[in-house]
Structures are given as C-alpha cells and as structure tokens.
C-alpha cells in the first residue's frame, strides 16, 4: 500500500480574514484552525507574517476566597446594615423637619442634625436642643461655652476624638496604628 502525498490546502483570502477575526477576538488557534479547516502551523505562520494582534487582555474580577455566593451574602449584610443606619438617620431628620426633638440620632450624625436644626428651625430650637443636651458627653463637641456651634467638620472630628475607640472599631483601625488620627 502506498501513501498518498499530502496535498497543500489553499484557502481563499475571505477564509483567512475570518480566521484572523476569530483569533484576534480571543479564540484559541486550535479551535479556529479546526473550525475553518486550516492548519495550526499555517495559522501561526500567517499570524507572524501579517502581524496579527490581540487586544490587551482585560482581567475581570478575581473570585473571592469565600466564593461568589459567600461574597454576595456578606455584601448584602453590609448593604442592609448601611441601609438601616441611613433609615435611622432619615427618621431622625424627618422628626427634626416637623419640629420634634430628635431622640434616636446615630452618634456620628449628631453634628449634622444639630447644625441642620439650628439653621432651619431657628435659634429658639437650637437653644432648646443645647439646654436639653448639656448633660450629654458630646454636648461640648457641638456647642462652646457661649452656645455657638463649630463647623460641621470641626464638630465631627471632635466627636471622633471624644469617641476614639468607637470610631477606630467602626473603621477597623487598630489602636496602635496611625496614632495622630482620632
């Protein structure tokens, strides 16, 4: 039995244009060669000769150690916690808008709420807020001895210094790290 010599397959330029498009689109040389019935070696030779280029690979997100379901569950819990805090603040602000005394304002939002009440509800409400809260540890952060309020940034920083351990725990900052921060 004699072997038939292998015959060189010649493909039209239209086929090679499709091969190039598929390879540059990210498909493997082996899968493209099989689909268009061209040799892998021929594909590589043509790629070199015509300087085919693939775009830089774009890496997607790396799967978290806990898996995507575990990650999603943790993100949902964090989202729900933030949402609950924001809703608490919204309730306190809504109460402030109708002139009620805000009783359940989250600690870190006290400077904003007290400043907002002073600006929008007037000096009488601000004086009442101060008189009612003078016995609170945070009152000296909000009002000075004459009853004046500082800027929102100043009050917030002072509150974070006053409750330094709480702030650091909330922000996951170890006690020994960044000692100049609250």
Helix fraction?
A: 55-70%
Tell me the strand percentage band: under 5%
Shape: rod-shaped
Strand/helix succession: HHHHHHHHH
State the end-to-end distance. 90 Å
Assembly type: single chain
The helix tally amounts to 9
Using only CA atoms, what is the Rg? 34 Å
Q: Give the class from helix and strand content and strand pairing.
A: mainly alpha
The residue-averaged pLDDT reads: 86
Uncertain stretches:
none
User: Tally of extended strands?
Assistant: 0
- Largest sheet composition: none
Explain how this protein is built.
This is Transposase. With 182 residues, the chain is mainly alpha-helical. The protein contains nine helices and no strands. It has helices spanning 13-24, 29-36, 40-50, 67-97, 110-121, 123-133, 139-142, 152-162, 164-170.
Gist of the model:
This is Transposase. The chain is mostly helical.
